[in-house]
Amino acid sequence: MDWMTEIPPASGAIVGPDGLARPRWAAVDPMLRDYYDTEWGIPVRFEHALFERISLEAFQSGLSWAIILRKRPGFRAAFADFDPDRVAAFDEDDVERLLSDAAIVRNRLKIRATITNAQATVALREQGGLVDFVWGFQPNETPQPRTQADVPTSSEASVSLAKALKKVGFVFVGPTTMFALMEAIGMIDTHLLDSHRRGSSGVWG
Description:
Layout: E1 5-6, E2 13-15, E3 21-23, H1 30-38, H2 47-60, H3 65-70, H4 72-78, H5 84-88, H6 92-99, H7 108-124, H8 130-135, H9 156-167, H10 175-184
Antiparallel strand pairs: 1-2, 2-3
Helix pairs in contact: 2-7, 2-10, 9-10
Organism: Cryobacterium levicorallinum
Protein name: DNA-3-methyladenine glycosylase I
InterPro entries: Adenine_glyco, DNA-3mA_glycosylase, DNA_glycosylase
């Protein structure tokens, strides 16, 4: 078999040498392929892990996800493994430390946003916690994309989630960023219909 073979154009998926169909973005780079196969779209229902996903999605804004994924170990080391309590206590000295850390994306606004969001995550425990708050916006239906062009970049649910998070103190949580989060944590299933991962979250049939 060739390194990869496109299956019928209507599907938009690509069959790799392992015989499995994936979207084009996950079909070439081994790192992205592994992320797609093992993590993307799998439900995240723990505060610590969900805070990490929100943080990384914010850093990804305006950049490629591959950049963020390659720097993920650096992000984890720099942000105390995304422990909300520890990050919430970061001060200006920590901001300056992070701005000199080449292992992460050095953006002052995004660094401060991560600290702000950690503080909001801690405060949200009084309202049931981040996980229940975010998952409370799970829609009743999920997209049914045959091609990547069929996958929307925002939705009514992501707009509502973004607005709600902003009301409780979160920043860098726009509708597009929240839609990407919803995809990543399995709240919606935007795997292409012909992808071998379609339905793998267990949330959607």
